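Let us practice reading a record.
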Amino acid sequence: MASEELARKLQSRLAATQEADPRPEPEQSPVRPKIMQEPEGACGDSSSELSAKLTRRLDISEGNAAPRPTRVFNPYTEFKEFSRKQIKDMEALFRRHDTGKDGFIDLMELKLMMEKLGAPQTHLGLKNMIKEVDEDFDGKLSFREFLLIFRRAAAGELQEESGLMALARLSEINVSTEGVMGAKDFFEAKMQALSVGSKFEAEIREEKEERKRQEVEKKQRQAAFKQLQSTFCS
Protein backbone atom coordinates (compact mmCIF):
# COMPACT_ATOMS: atom_id res chain seq x y z
CA MET A 1 0.00 0.00 0.00
CA ALA A 2 1.00 3.68 -0.36
CA SER A 3 1.87 4.05 3.34
CA GLU A 4 4.03 0.91 3.39
CA GLU A 5 5.79 1.93 0.18
CA LEU A 6 6.52 5.37 1.65
CA ALA A 7 7.92 3.75 4.81
CA ARG A 8 10.18 1.47 2.73
CA LYS A 9 11.50 4.48 0.80
CA LEU A 10 12.20 6.29 4.07
CA GLN A 11 14.08 3.25 5.45
CA SER A 12 16.13 3.03 2.26
CA ARG A 13 17.01 6.72 2.47
CA LEU A 14 18.06 6.49 6.10
CA ALA A 15 20.19 3.41 5.35
CA ALA A 16 22.03 5.30 2.62
CA THR A 17 22.61 8.19 5.05
CA GLN A 18 24.09 5.84 7.67
CA GLU A 19 26.54 4.37 5.13
CA ALA A 20 27.80 7.85 4.29
CA ASP A 21 28.08 8.94 7.95
CA PRO A 22 28.24 5.89 10.31
CA ARG A 23 26.47 6.51 13.60
CA PRO A 24 24.80 4.25 16.18
CA GLU A 25 21.57 2.96 14.71
CA PRO A 26 18.44 4.52 16.23
CA GLU A 27 15.80 2.30 17.75
CA GLN A 28 13.52 0.97 15.01
CA SER A 29 9.75 0.67 15.26
CA PRO A 30 8.10 -2.40 13.68
CA VAL A 31 5.76 -0.09 11.75
CA ARG A 32 7.95 2.82 10.70
CA PRO A 33 11.49 4.08 11.32
CA LYS A 34 12.28 6.61 13.99
CA ILE A 35 13.79 9.82 12.65
CA MET A 36 17.50 10.22 13.39
CA GLN A 37 18.35 13.16 15.63
CA GLU A 38 21.38 14.98 14.22
CA PRO A 39 23.41 17.60 16.13
CA GLU A 40 22.73 21.12 14.92
CA GLY A 41 25.06 22.05 12.05
CA ALA A 42 26.06 18.45 11.34
CA CYS A 43 26.55 17.24 7.81
CA GLY A 44 23.40 15.13 8.06
CA ASP A 45 21.10 18.17 8.31
CA SER A 46 19.90 17.91 4.72
CA SER A 47 19.06 14.22 5.02
CA SER A 48 17.30 14.83 8.35
CA GLU A 49 15.20 17.54 6.72
CA LEU A 50 14.29 15.16 3.91
CA SER A 51 13.41 12.47 6.45
CA ALA A 52 11.17 14.93 8.31
CA LYS A 53 9.36 15.84 5.09
CA LEU A 54 8.86 12.19 4.16
CA THR A 55 7.63 11.40 7.64
CA ARG A 56 5.13 14.27 7.57
CA ARG A 57 3.89 13.07 4.20
CA LEU A 58 3.43 9.63 5.72
CA ASP A 59 1.56 11.20 8.67
CA ILE A 60 -0.72 13.06 6.27
CA SER A 61 -1.49 9.89 4.31
CA GLU A 62 -2.34 8.10 7.58
CA GLY A 63 -4.37 11.00 8.92
CA ASN A 64 -2.03 11.59 11.89
CA ALA A 65 -0.50 14.92 10.86
CA ALA A 66 -0.94 17.81 13.27
CA PRO A 67 -2.46 20.91 11.59
CA ARG A 68 -0.03 23.67 10.73
CA PRO A 69 -0.62 27.08 12.34
CA THR A 70 -2.62 29.39 10.09
CA ARG A 71 -1.94 33.08 9.64
CA VAL A 72 -4.58 35.74 10.20
CA PHE A 73 -6.11 36.74 6.87
CA ASN A 74 -7.23 40.34 6.27
CA PRO A 75 -8.76 40.71 2.79
CA TYR A 76 -8.69 44.52 2.93
CA THR A 77 -4.91 44.70 3.36
CA GLU A 78 -3.98 41.75 1.13
CA PHE A 79 -6.31 42.59 -1.77
CA LYS A 80 -5.79 46.35 -1.95
CA GLU A 81 -6.67 46.45 -5.63
CA PHE A 82 -10.33 45.99 -4.67
CA SER A 83 -12.53 48.48 -2.84
CA ARG A 84 -14.16 47.64 0.47
CA LYS A 85 -17.53 47.38 -1.24
CA GLN A 86 -16.19 44.96 -3.85
CA ILE A 87 -14.68 42.74 -1.17
CA LYS A 88 -17.91 42.81 0.82
CA ASP A 89 -19.86 41.88 -2.32
CA MET A 90 -17.46 38.99 -2.96
CA GLU A 91 -17.82 37.86 0.65
CA ALA A 92 -21.62 37.97 0.39
CA LEU A 93 -21.44 35.89 -2.81
CA PHE A 94 -19.07 33.43 -1.14
CA ARG A 95 -21.26 33.05 1.97
CA ARG A 96 -24.41 32.63 -0.10
CA HIS A 97 -22.94 29.61 -1.89
CA ASP A 98 -21.17 28.19 1.20
CA THR A 99 -24.28 26.20 2.04
CA GLY A 100 -22.40 24.05 4.55
CA LYS A 101 -21.44 27.21 6.51
CA ASP A 102 -17.94 25.82 7.14
CA GLY A 103 -16.01 28.68 5.55
CA PHE A 104 -15.26 26.75 2.33
CA ILE A 105 -16.87 26.10 -1.04
CA ASP A 106 -16.40 22.43 -1.85
CA LEU A 107 -16.83 20.63 -5.16
CA MET A 108 -20.59 20.11 -4.82
CA GLU A 109 -21.20 23.69 -3.66
CA LEU A 110 -19.16 24.98 -6.61
CA LYS A 111 -21.21 22.77 -8.94
CA LEU A 112 -24.47 24.29 -7.68
CA MET A 113 -22.97 27.77 -7.81
CA MET A 114 -21.97 27.47 -11.46
CA GLU A 115 -25.39 26.05 -12.34
CA LYS A 116 -27.11 29.03 -10.70
CA LEU A 117 -24.82 31.40 -12.60
CA GLY A 118 -25.86 29.73 -15.83
CA ALA A 119 -22.47 28.21 -16.61
CA PRO A 120 -22.64 24.53 -15.54
CA GLN A 121 -19.34 22.64 -15.58
CA THR A 122 -18.36 19.00 -15.89
CA HIS A 123 -17.00 17.18 -12.86
CA LEU A 124 -13.48 17.42 -14.29
CA GLY A 125 -13.99 21.09 -15.11
CA LEU A 126 -15.02 21.82 -11.51
CA LYS A 127 -11.96 20.00 -10.16
CA ASN A 128 -9.72 22.00 -12.50
CA MET A 129 -11.34 25.24 -11.36
CA ILE A 130 -10.52 24.46 -7.73
CA LYS A 131 -7.05 23.18 -8.58
CA GLU A 132 -6.12 26.44 -10.34
CA VAL A 133 -6.38 28.52 -7.14
CA ASP A 134 -6.17 25.81 -4.44
CA GLU A 135 -2.97 26.92 -2.71
CA ASP A 136 -3.24 24.55 0.27
CA PHE A 137 -4.29 21.52 -1.82
CA ASP A 138 -7.33 20.71 0.33
CA GLY A 139 -9.67 20.30 -2.64
CA LYS A 140 -11.95 23.23 -1.78
CA LEU A 141 -12.03 27.02 -1.93
CA SER A 142 -11.40 29.24 1.09
CA PHE A 143 -12.52 32.89 0.93
CA ARG A 144 -8.94 33.95 0.20
CA GLU A 145 -8.70 31.49 -2.70
CA PHE A 146 -12.10 32.74 -3.89
CA LEU A 147 -10.71 36.29 -4.00
CA LEU A 148 -7.73 35.02 -6.00
CA ILE A 149 -10.16 34.19 -8.82
CA PHE A 150 -11.13 37.84 -9.16
CA ARG A 151 -7.54 39.03 -8.77
CA ARG A 152 -6.44 36.77 -11.60
CA ALA A 153 -9.42 37.85 -13.69
CA ALA A 154 -8.51 41.50 -13.15
CA ALA A 155 -4.89 40.80 -14.12
CA GLY A 156 -5.93 38.95 -17.28
CA GLU A 157 -4.35 35.71 -16.08
CA LEU A 158 -7.40 33.51 -16.75
CA GLN A 159 -8.19 31.86 -20.07
CA GLU A 160 -11.22 33.42 -21.73
CA GLU A 161 -13.15 30.13 -21.90
CA SER A 162 -12.17 28.83 -18.46
CA GLY A 163 -14.68 28.09 -15.74
CA LEU A 164 -13.04 30.62 -13.42
CA MET A 165 -13.43 33.40 -15.97
CA ALA A 166 -17.09 32.45 -16.35
CA LEU A 167 -17.49 32.66 -12.58
CA ALA A 168 -15.82 36.09 -12.46
CA ARG A 169 -17.81 37.43 -15.41
CA LEU A 170 -21.22 36.08 -14.39
CA SER A 171 -21.02 36.91 -10.69
CA GLU A 172 -23.26 39.69 -9.40
CA ILE A 173 -20.25 41.88 -8.57
CA ASN A 174 -20.05 43.50 -12.02
CA VAL A 175 -23.69 43.23 -13.13
CA SER A 176 -24.47 46.94 -12.67
CA THR A 177 -21.51 48.29 -14.69
CA GLU A 178 -22.22 50.14 -17.94
CA GLY A 179 -20.13 49.81 -21.05
CA VAL A 180 -17.74 47.33 -19.45
CA MET A 181 -17.38 43.86 -20.95
CA GLY A 182 -15.79 41.10 -18.86
CA ALA A 183 -14.28 40.97 -15.40
CA LYS A 184 -10.83 42.12 -16.56
CA ASP A 185 -12.07 45.42 -18.03
CA PHE A 186 -14.46 45.92 -15.14
CA PHE A 187 -11.80 45.71 -12.46
CA GLU A 188 -9.31 47.74 -14.50
CA ALA A 189 -11.87 50.54 -14.86
CA LYS A 190 -12.61 50.45 -11.16
CA MET A 191 -8.94 50.48 -10.17
CA GLN A 192 -8.17 53.42 -12.45
CA ALA A 193 -11.09 55.51 -11.18
CA LEU A 194 -9.66 56.19 -7.71
CA SER A 195 -6.43 55.52 -5.87
CA VAL A 196 -6.45 52.78 -3.25
CA GLY A 197 -5.95 55.20 -0.38
CA SER A 198 -8.71 57.63 -1.33
CA LYS A 199 -11.15 54.79 -1.96
CA PHE A 200 -10.67 53.34 1.49
CA GLU A 201 -10.83 56.72 3.18
CA ALA A 202 -14.03 57.67 1.38
CA GLU A 203 -15.71 54.35 2.10
CA ILE A 204 -14.75 54.36 5.77
CA ARG A 205 -16.04 57.94 6.09
CA GLU A 206 -19.33 56.98 4.43
CA GLU A 207 -19.74 54.01 6.75
CA LYS A 208 -19.16 56.21 9.81
CA GLU A 209 -21.64 58.82 8.58
CA GLU A 210 -24.23 56.12 7.94
CA ARG A 211 -23.80 54.73 11.47
CA LYS A 212 -24.16 58.24 12.93
CA ARG A 213 -27.33 58.83 10.92
CA GLN A 214 -28.81 55.54 12.10
CA GLU A 215 -27.92 56.39 15.70
CA VAL A 216 -29.61 59.81 15.44
CA GLU A 217 -32.74 58.25 13.96
CA LYS A 218 -32.80 55.67 16.73
CA LYS A 219 -32.58 58.38 19.44
CA GLN A 220 -35.33 60.37 17.74
CA ARG A 221 -37.60 57.32 17.67
CA GLN A 222 -36.89 56.62 21.35
CA ALA A 223 -37.61 60.24 22.28
CA ALA A 224 -40.87 60.23 20.32
CA PHE A 225 -41.93 56.98 21.97
CA LYS A 226 -41.20 58.35 25.46
CA GLN A 227 -43.14 61.52 24.70
CA LEU A 228 -46.11 59.49 23.45
CA GLN A 229 -45.90 57.21 26.49
CA SER A 230 -45.90 60.19 28.90
CA THR A 231 -48.93 61.64 27.14
CA PHE A 232 -50.97 58.50 27.71
CA CYS A 233 -49.77 58.08 31.28
CA SER A 234 -50.48 61.68 32.38
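A brief commentary: The domain at 75-170 is CATH 1.10.238.10 (Recoverin; domain 1).
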